[in-house]
Write a structure and sequence with these properties.
- The chain has two domains: 2-47, no CATH class; 52-89, no CATH class.
- Helix content is 20%, strand content 35%.
- The longest helix is centred in the last third of the chain and has 11 residues, at 74-84.
- It has a three-stranded antiparallel sheet, with no helix packed on it. A three-stranded mixed sheet has the order 6-7-8, with no helix packed on it. A two-stranded antiparallel sheet has the order 1-2.
- With 93 residues, it is an alpha+beta fold.
- The protein has two helices and eight strands.
- The two termini are 23 Å apart.
- The protein has helices at residues 63-70, 74-84, and strands spanning 2-5, 8-11, 15-20, 23-27, 40-43, 52-55, 58-61, 88-89.
Length: 93
Amino acid sequence: MLVIDGDQKAHLWYSFQGVSDGLLLGKHYQLPPELEEHATVAVRREEIEDWMINDHQVLYGGFSIRYQRSKLPEEEKRSFDEHVGVKEYKDLN
């Protein structure tokens, strides 16, 4: 999700927590202290820019994660996969 704070912009990932009044509730899990006010969000579905499901280390979606990984040298991809907790990237079709 894109978070705008003054002239600063950041794309942040949130973990889906549920739905309330038609809004998706999310919680951030690795937020820097200076962005603590954005620790939780309630957003409309249309505001979601990217999504992913990590089902026992099998990734569905995660378009920005896939893009970041595609830019890495081959020797760094395994470390990246371990960091994000993915062993398999499911086909997007």
